[in-house]
Design a protein that fits this description.
With 183 residues, the chain is α/β, with parallel strands linked by helices. The chain has one domain: 3-Layer(aba) Sandwich (Rossmann fold). It contains 5 helices and 7 strands; from the N terminus they run H-E-H-E-H-E-H-E-H-E-E-E. Strands 3-2-1-4-5-7-6 form a 7-stranded mixed beta sheet, sandwiched between helices. Helix 3 links the parallel strand 2 and strand 3. The radius of gyration is 15 Å and the shape is globular. This is 16S rRNA (Guanine(966)-N(2))-methyltransferase RsmD.
C-alpha cells in the first residue's frame, strides 16, 4: 500500500498485521480520489475507522489542510503515527484513539469538508454513524461522505433528506458511495 498522488506520492505505508483491519486497496483508493478530486484542496477531513490512516494521508498529500483520524485500536493508532511521520505530514494530522460509535459526539462543535468511513463489514455501524455525523453537524453543507462498505451490507443503503447520492461504485466485494450534504 502506498500514497498514490501529491507531495507524499510513492511513499509506502505500513499496515497492521492480521485481520483486525482491512486496508483500502490502491485500486479502490485511486477510484475514490478520482471521484472526489474537486473536493480535496484545502479540505478539512475526518477519517473514521482510520486503520492505517491511508485515506486521510492521501487527502493531505493531495492538498487537504488537516485531518482528524479516529481509531480505537492502539496498534492502528501507532501505525497512523508512523505513517504520518514517514510521509512528513504529522503537523497536519490529529490522531484520536477512541471508538467511533461511542465517542464521536466528542467532536460536537467541529465540522469537516470530507468524512471518510471504512467501518468493519457487517457490524451495523454505517447508519448510526451517519446519523451522528448529521445530528452533530460534523459535516459542513456541501461537504461529502465517502463510504467504503461490503457490497452485500444492507446497512449501507443510505436514505437521508440531508444527503444527496453523488455516486456509487462496486470493486469486487467493496462498494464505495459518495454523498453530499445538502441541508
Amino acid at each position: 500500500m502506498r500514497v498514490i498522488s501529491g507531495k507524499a506520492r510513492g511513499t509506502k505505508l505500513m499496515t497492521i498485521e492480521g485481520t483486525a483491519t482491512r486496508p483500502t486497496t490502491d485500486r479502490v483508493k485511486e477510484a475514490i480520489f478520482s471521484m472526489v478530486q474537486q473536493h480535496l484542496y484545502e479540505a478539512e477531513g475526518l477519517d473514521l475507522f482510520a486503520g492505517s490512516g491511508a485515506l486521510g494521508i492521501e487527502l493531505l498529500s493531495r492538498g487537504g489542510s488537516a485531518v482528524s483520524f479516529i481509531e480505537s485500536s492502539a496498534k492502528a493508532v501507532q501505525c497512523i503515527r508512523d505513517n504520518m511521520q514517514k510521509t512528513h505530514l504529522e503537523a497536519q494530522g490529529e490522531i484520536l484513539q477512541m471508538t467511533v460509535e461511542r465517542d464521536l459526539t466528542m467532536l460536537k462543535g467541529r465540522s469537516f469538508d470530507i468524512v471518510f468511513m471504512d467501518p468493519p463489514y457487517h457490524k451495523g455501524m454505517i447508519k448510526s454513524t451517519i446519523e451522528t455525523i448529521l445530528r452533530y453537524e460534523l459535516l459542513r453543507i456541501n461537504g461529502i461522505i465517502v463510504l467504503e462498505h461490503h457490497v452485500d451490507d444492507k446497512d449501507s443503503e443510505i436514505v437521508s433528506d440531508a444527503l444527496e447520492v453523488l455516486t456509487q461504485k462496486r470493486y469486487g466485494i467493496t462498494g464505495v458511495g459518495v454523498y453530499r450534504r445538502i441541508e
